[in-house]
Every structure is written in C-alpha cells, then in structure tokens.
Inverse folding.
C-alpha cells in the first residue's frame, strides 16, 4: 500500500488494469529511482484479467508479423503499426517467459498461460510491480487533474474517507472504458471518439435456426451493409454467435449502434460459394440417378452443412425427392444457401471477452511514446484509447504494447 504522507510522485498511473501495470513495471525496471504509484478505483486491481478468456486469460495471439497483426483491429490498426514493430506478441511471450510464466498457443493461435488460469497472469503482474518498487493503492479514484504551471500535474484522488491532493511529474491514464475519466481527459483538451460496445453476439429469431442451439458451421460468410466477414458460426438459443459473428460485431460496432442493433443480415452458409456454382451442384444432385428417390431433406448436397440445419433450410420444399425438385425450387434453395436473409433483432452477450470501441482520439497521441500531443507529460495506454481488436488476445496485446511504450517513455524523468 502507498504511504500517503508522500504526496509527490515521479509517475502516477491511473488505473490498475493490465495496461497500467505493464507500464508501471517497465518504467520501474528501467529507472528504479523513480517513485511510481498506481491508483485503482475498485477494491481489487486487474479485475478484467481475472475474468478474461473464460477464466483462462487469452494473453495474446500467435501472430508475429506486425503488418498482418493490425488487420485484427477494427479501430487503431494503423496507429499500432509502428508500435507493434517495437513490442509485439513475440515480445509479450518473451516478457512473460522471462518473468517465469510460459504461454502456449492453441490450434486457432490464441495464447494462454500453460496453467490455463488467469490468476497466473494477475499474480505475476502484482509480483513484478511489488518487486520493482511500484506502490499500489486500491479504492482510490482519480477525480480531477490540473496541469501545474511549473510542470507536472496536481491531482485530486478520492478514497473512502478523503480527497487526497497528489502531485506527479508524469501522469499515465490507463483507466480502460471508464466514462468519468473520459470527462477528465476531455477537460485536459483531448477529444474522445464516442464509446460503443464491441464483440457481441446477435439476437435472431427465425424458424430456420429454431431448436438448433449448439449447431456449428465451419465456414460461413456474413454480410451486413458494406461489411463482410467469414469464419465459423455457432447457432445459439438466442441467435448467432461464433468467431464470424463476433468479428462482424466488431467491424460493424458503430453501424449497429447507430441502427439500435437492428439490421438485415445476409448469410452464405457455404462460405464463398456463388449462386451459379451452388445451382450446378444442386442440379448434379438432382441428375444423379441414385438420388432420384431420396428425400432432399435427408440427403444434403453439401457436406459442410450439418443435417439438422439442412433439414430446416430445405423445409420450404416439403417432402420431395431429389428427382422431383423444380427449377424454381432449386434456384430458391441456392439463394437460401448462399444469400439467406435474416434479421438481427438485438445485441447478445459474449461472456468470454468484451470491449468498448471509442476513446481518446488517436491523432492526439504520439505512438512512439504514448505521450499526448496536446499536454506534455500526459500519457495514455490500453482501452482508454480508440483502439479495439477482434476476439483472440488482440485487446490485451494492445494494452501490453501501449503500456510498454508508455513505461519506456516515462522512465526518462
Ligand atoms: C469478460 C471479459 C473478458 C475478456 N477477455 C479477454 C481476453 O481473454 N483477451 C483479451 O485480449 N482481451 C480480453 N478482454 C478485454 C480486456 O480485458 C481489455 O481490453 C483490457 O482489460 C484493457 O486493459 P486496460 O488496462 O486498458 O483497462 P482495464 O482492464 O479496464 O483497467 C482499467 C482500470 O482502471 C480503473 N479505473 C477506472 N477509472 C479510474 C479512475 N478514475 N481512477 C482510478 N482507477 C480507475 C478500473 O477500475 C480498472 O481496474 C476481456 C474483457 C472482458 C470484459
């Protein structure tokens, strides 16, 4: 715990999340003489780390090419391009390994601690902060910041009983998606991109997917307005989920917010199949003599579509055999398979990961140092910035990268 007789600090980090801890540790390791304090408004630090990745913490993603890595960020990719050449997932893996935590990559390239426990990640950050001499105070909320005329900042920090006046030479804002802190950031002259949720599932009520919760299709293409995404999809009790739905929700976060989470959605159950190619395959199924007396509903024309889903997508044809399907029915089926029309009726919850898009305008931050271009000695890291990635460890990676860069820059006081 911090000694509150000390009101003067070299570096204060507002926000005891992954970005704040990573920055503080890096800064303290580079310059052990600095007095560094983390203030955290809730009673526990690293709260999101502990619940992340379904309790396993998806720390980063095994994508080690910065040019490719940025394609996973619907917002902030361009700004992160240079930052990732300085600290990228490979550096994250090495950092944790050097500090005694081994990470493993799963088949889809998501990386977790080998312990499969988020606590391993929170524990090592707490341990290294303490080891490096970083002070941490919980239950302390940053509520006001003023630039001092002689340099540095005067802060008002509220704990249970008092408002504490603190002074610091450098200030890092790493408060995540906290709305009140965004007002403080605005009061310092920064502009904020309006925050809206990202990474959610879609509520869809439709008889074609009714009763199919748990059915997965390996490669589906979803299209909403000008946004197209492909990948695995999962049908749930409430609608549509799985990697492709989450990716669409991230890229379409602003559009869907503006539309109040109601939109039409085109589903190609066959991934990238075009209408003509699909019609050809359906025609071959009809022409194949062995099929003539087999029920369409019992004999899927495409192996990638699970039989239960196929039955419901072909329901409009009734009980017909392949030999009896009409040209019009065949065309309608091809359309259903490659461009099925669905309605998104609302936003569902994805429990394993959730982020807010929006935050501090990226043009106002120097991504070599994470220092504000508006206020000297003010720094930003993590989700407070207008950066968000798709699901898969990309959100923590941007916290590690921006935290590490801020830690480097702040160490030189
Ligand atoms: C359920 C869930 C699961 C997730 N799983 C993953 C995952 O597996 N992989 C992944 O990459 N991403 C995941 N994410 C996203 C990831 O947690 C965030 O991107 C990341 O935590 C952002 O880090 P941060 O340090 O910027 O902010 P935060 O983690 O939000 O930390 C900010 C801290 O600042 C504190 N604070 C706020 N305002 C003040 C103030 N005024 N004064 C003092 N303190 C303040 C907050 O209490 C908080 O502790 C998940 C998110 C959720 C909600």
């Amino acid at each position: 715990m911090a000694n509150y007789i000390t009101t003067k600090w070299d570096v204060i980090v507002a926000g005891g999340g992954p970005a704040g801890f990573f920055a503080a540790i890096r800064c303290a390791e580079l310059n052990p003489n600095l007095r560094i304090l983390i203030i955290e408004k809730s009673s526990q630090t690293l709260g999101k780390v502990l619940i992340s990745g379904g309790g396993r913490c998806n720390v980063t993603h095994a994508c080690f090419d910065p040019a490719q890595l940025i394609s996973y960020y619907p917002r902030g990719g361009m700004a992160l391009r240079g930052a990732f050449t300085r600290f990228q997932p490979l550096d994250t893996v090495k950092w944790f390994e050097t500090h005694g935590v081994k990470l493993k990559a799963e088949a889809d390239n998501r990386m977790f601690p080998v312990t499969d426990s988020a606590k391993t990640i929170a524990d090592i950050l707490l341990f290294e902060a303490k080891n490096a001499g970083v002070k941490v105070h919980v239950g302390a909320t940053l509520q006001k910041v003023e630039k001092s005329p002689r340099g540095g900042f005067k802060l008002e920090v509220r704990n249970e009983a008092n408002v504490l006046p603190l002074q610091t030479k450098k200030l890092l804002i790493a408060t995540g998606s906290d709305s009140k802190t965004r007002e403080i950031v605005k009061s310092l002259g920064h502009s904020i991109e309006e925050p809206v949720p990202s990474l959610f599932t879609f509520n869809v009520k439709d008889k074609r997917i009714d009763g199919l919760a748990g059915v997965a299709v390996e490669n589906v293409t979803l299209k909403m307005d000008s946004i197209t995404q492909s990948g695995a999809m999962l049908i749930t009790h409430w609608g549509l989920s799985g990697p492709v739905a989450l990716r669409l929700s991230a890229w379409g976060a602003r559009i869907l917010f503006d539309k109040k989470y109601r939109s039409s959605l085109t589903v190609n159950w066959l991934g990238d199949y075009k209408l003509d190619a699909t019609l050809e395959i359906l025609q071959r199924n009809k022409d194949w003599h062995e099929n003539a007396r087999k029920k369409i509903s019992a004999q899927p024309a495409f192996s990638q579509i699970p039989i239960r889903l196929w039955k419901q997508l072909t329901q409009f044809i009734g009980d017909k055999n392949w030999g009896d399907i009409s040209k019009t029915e065949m065309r309608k089926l091809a359309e259903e398979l490659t461009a099925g029309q669905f309605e998104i009726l609302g936003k569902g919850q994805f429990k394993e990961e959730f982020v807010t898009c929006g935050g501090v305008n990226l043009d106002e931050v120097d991504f070599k140092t994470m220092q504000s271009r508006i206020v000297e000695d003010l720094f930003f890291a993590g989700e407070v910035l207008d950066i968000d990635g798709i699901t898969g460890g990309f959100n923590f990676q941007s916290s590690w990268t921006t935290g590490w860069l801020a830690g480097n820059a702040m160490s030189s006081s």
About this structure: The longest helix spans residues 394-410. Residues 14-20, 39-42, 47-48, 51-53, 57-58, 141-142, 174-176, 178, 180-181, 352-355, 382-384, 393-396, 399 surround flavin-adenine dinucleotide (CB under 6 Å).
